[in-house]
Amino acid sequence: MQYRIDKRSGNKISILSFGCMRFPSALGVTDMHKTEELIMRSIENGVNYFDTAWIYPGNEEALGSILHKNNVRYKVYIATKMPLVVLKTSRDNTIDFDKYFFQSLERLKTDYIDYYLLHMLTGFDHWQKLKSAGIENWIAQKKKSGQIKQIGFSYHGSGSDFLKIIDDYNWEFVQIQYNYFDENFQAGVTGLRAAAAKMPVIIMEPLLGGKLATGLPKDAVKIFKDADAKLSPVGWALNWLWNQGEVTSLLSGMNAMAQLEENLKLADTATAGMLDDTKIAVYKSVLECLKRSCKIRCTGCNYCMPCPVGVNIPGSFAAFNTIYSMGYVEGMKQFITSTGFMAAKSASPSLCIKCGKCETHCPQSISIMKELAVVKKRMEPLFIKFIGVCARAFLGVKRKK
Q: 276 CB contacts (<8 Å, ≥6 apart)?
């Protein structure tokens, strides 16, 4: 196992971390025997960072029970998360942060959390709302008591807001979605590098929910195989991340022993800068293969931005294209985060006033106004809009005009 140093704390973190969201289960119930085998095998082979969350059903309890039973809590770093999605603001603009934190401690059978995250920050406005409810004082109290060792957040929002958030508070680590397909999605490579200059960066979705392992087009799989028949698409995806020194560790949701063994073998030899130009070219070929299924030939150059009314034009097009290259669910996930689906300020294509400014700057000569209308029709049917209204109402988010 290779390790990278958390320069804020001095902790050595395994480059392969255990993402606990997808423990083996049957009929929705965690299979404790299989889960224990996986956890103990991973610890025996040097994995020392385990990521769970309050909101994952039965997950914290399973992890806590197994670590306690085998007396190995001291060998690992536990990361868990405050469920921002269920927090309620009282009439005096306060939030009971303690409620969920102490439930996590009880479930995990521990009296402190090594790496505690605010789960799913969606934008700068979201962070400002938490600040106004006293989150900074609450964090300071928990840090002083030793109940939280390192404080961070997981992110699902725009790249520009990510940069604002990491500059607005003394964060000690961060977790972002990042892989070779999502290099410019959400925080993206720009956010990765900016954050890594300040703190450890943990990567989630290194395989895009498994799609980069088993959901690639046959042509893409052939490109990888022709380049190195011994390396699976999983190996290519994980090596792309480990090649970047800014990546502290990546989370893998391993729910079968074969997956764990493959990942452990890869993590034994992975180092920053291990990919030469020939291998980097292979990823470019795979991405070109994926892009051939794209409907809008947007390169994400951002020359069309900023939009006068705030439409995230490249983000909307990228999400639309993802529907055809990686599936509807993945495309909608990108669309929701790129267009402020649950934020106070929308960046939806429905805002377009057809001023035409964007088209005068597009080097690809895309009929942007026409394409935004297509995206709006495909990505924002009435039931999606209704879900958005309900979600914002539940979170207490009021739209800014």
A: none
Do residues 347 and 158 lie in contact, with contact meaning Cβ atoms separated by under 8 Å? yes
Query: If you average pLDDT over residues 18-47, what whole number do you get?
Result: 92
Alpha carbon of residue 281 to chain centroid: 25
Residue 28 DSSP code: T
The answer to pTM > 0.85 is no
Euclidean distance between CA atoms 285 and 2, whole angstroms = 29
Helix 277-291 × helix 233-242 angle, to 10°: 120
pLDDT tens readout for residues 327-352: 888 888 888 888 877 777 888 999 99
Distances (CA, A) of 55 to 52, 203, 292, 400: 9, 19, 37, 29
**Who has greater pLDDT, 364 or 222?**
222
In CATH, which of 3.20.20.370, 3.30.70.240, 3.40.50.720, 3.20.20.100 is domain 3-282?
3.20.20.100
Q: pLDDT tens-digit profile of 60-92?
A: 999 999 999 999 999 999 999 999 988 887 777
Q: How far is CA 302 from CA 52, 305, 317, 319, 338, in A?
A: 36, 5, 11, 15, 14
10: left (phi over 0), alpha (psi -120 to 50) or beta: left
8: burial class by Cβ within 10 Å (0-12, 13-18, 19+)? middle
Q: Is the pLDDT of residue 396 over 80?
A: no
Q: What is the mean pLDDT of residues 250-268?
A: 95
Strand runs labelled E in 133-200:
148-155, 173-177
